[in-house]
Structures are given as structure tokens and as C-alpha cells.
Amino acid sequence: MRKLIFGLFIAALPALGLAAGASVPLDHIETDHTNKESLQRGAALFTNYCMGCHSMEYARYKRVSDDLEIPAELFEENLIFTGAKIGELMKNSMNKDMAADWFGAPPPDLTLETRLRGESWVYSYLRGFYQDDSRPLGVNNVVYANVGMPHVMVDLQGLCAVEPSIGVDASVEPLSGNINNGDVCPEYAIEGSMSAAEFDQAMYDLTNFMSYMADPIRVERERLGMFVLIFVAIFFIFAYLLNREYWKDVH
Length: 251
Prior knowledge:
By secondary structure, the protein is mainly alpha-helical. The protein is 47% helix and 10% strand. The chain has ten helices and eight strands. The strands form four sheets. A two-stranded antiparallel sheet has the order 1-2. The protein starts with a helix and ends with a helix. Keywords: Heme, Iron, Membrane, Metal-binding, Signal, Transmembrane, Transmembrane helix. This is Cytochrome c1. It holds the Pfam family Cytochrom_C1. It is found in: Membrane. InterPro entries: Cyt_c-like_dom, Cyt_c-like_dom_sf, Cyt_c1.
């Protein structure tokens, strides 16, 4: 019973605004678990850039391969780098004690990260790194202050020289037509291989994949939910008519 209550509490955190960083302005997104292409790109980004440190040990490669419609042979060849079999859990080989020495704490498992913090938080965090020479790893994050994680996607995004403009909507100057805040990074210390729009799309794909991993049956659950609601509506009609028949002679 306590496990059930705890699980419901964790699931409700994003909605209640209790997740870490809830007071930080965020760039809001809506994920789409039916977009297989986005999920596939996100899976590639996660296994290439995140899984060296972070695991998803509550999921199996085979389930991801089937849901994302990636052939098992292709998945094993291109998305599994640990020598694991397709049916194994998505773990990595990082030693947690050594990771704690390097980063101050072992990198967390990310299977349920979007359920814990929220999808918009993760999306904003991934785009929120900037140069900070006072930090041990030379970077900080506008969403998670004093973060102990390096900017692993610096080759894609580049490195912001100043704090990124997270949570600030783009605007167009009426006279010049110039776009303000079209790029979350006003100034780059290091240029990346992607444009701002390309990197935003890549981080959306990665967040979309992480959202799927936290709730892999969401599409099926929502589909079945419609049938349940239709059944309840029809049942209510018959229940109402039956109740009226029982009580018609009482009044």
C-alpha cells in the first residue's frame, strides 16, 4: 500500500509543481509518443551521449526496439555499446563509487526522470548550459544551478558565453523585423555543429524519448481510456433508467 501511495505521489509531482526547479522559468513543450521518427532520433541521442553515465535500468532494449519499430539486429548494431544482449535491462558499466568521486554524486538513473521533474524541465535543462569558469567542470546551468554534470553535447550546441534565455519567448521588432530571443544562447564561447533550431529539435527528440521511457504505454492507455469512458457513459444511461424504474413507485 505504501509503495502504491509513493508511486502516485511521484506521478503527481510535475502537476503539483513540486519537482526540482519548479520556480525556474521553463520553455514548455508537448511530447508526442506517436512520432516514431522523433523517438528513434531521441533513442540514438540518448545511447550515444547519455548512456555512458546514465542508465535506464527499469527498461529493456527489446521493449524499446519493438515499440520504436527498430529491427533488433539494427538496434544491437547501432544503439547498444556495452556488449549487452537485446533482452537485457538498459544498464551501463560505470562504477558508482568512481562516478561519485568524479562528479560529487553518482549519475542518476533516468528511466523516470520526466515523471519526476517534468518534460519541460528536462527540455529546458538540456538547453540551459553556459560557460562558468568558477565551476569545477567549467559549466553551469540556468535551470539547475551549480550542476555537477559536464555539457556533454557541447559539440552539437556549442557553449554559451552567457546565461541562456530559457523561459523567454521570442519576439519580432515591428519596424526592423528582427527576431529577439530566437536563439536561447545570445553569445557563444564555442560554436557547435548544429544551428539553434536544429539543436532545439534534437533536444525535443531526446526529451520525447525520455518521456516515452517513463510512460511506455501512454498511447495504449489513452486509446483504451476512450473506450472506458464510452462504456461508462452507456452504462450510466442504463443505470439511470434502472434506478428510475426501481424508485418510480416510491414517490
